[in-house]
Amino acid sequence: MLKKYHELMLIVDTCQAASMYQKIYSPNVIALGSSMIGEDSLSHHLDSTLGVYMIDRYTYYALGFLQSVWPNSNRTLAEFLACCPKSKCLSTVRVRTDLFNKDPSKVLITDFFGSVRNIAYLQEKLEPDIA
């Protein structure tokens, strides 16, 4: 990954999701899969008008957790990793931490989500360089 990141979180929400991060060897990566190898990842609810499932279970519960996070939140990565136990997801969420050298209970979830960008406004007009 050519030193193009400081820390990286990979989230895979699909059947047999844990298989998707087995070959990763780069440092400072934490990986999460919504289901273990040999296991399906299930949908949450059906739209009976359309006749299709609207969202996967892991995504539904992860989104619910993240909607409670604000830029000044003290919620941790460990809390996020526990947002969808088997009783809710109906699959076994797997987390790979061997490449991540920090304790998830001491890492703020806002290190990965909820950033606020500083924007610098320019007073002068910029002209495109068309050559």
Automatic annotation (TrEMBL):
GO terms for cellular component: GPI-anchor transamidase complex. GO terms for biological process: attachment of GPI anchor to protein. PANTHER family: GPI-ANCHOR TRANSAMIDASE. It comes from the Eukaryota. The keyword Signal applies. GO terms for molecular function: GPI-anchor transamidase activity. Keywords: Signal. This is Putative GPI-anchor transamidase. InterPro entries: GPI_transamidase. Gene3D superfamilies: 3.40.50.1460.
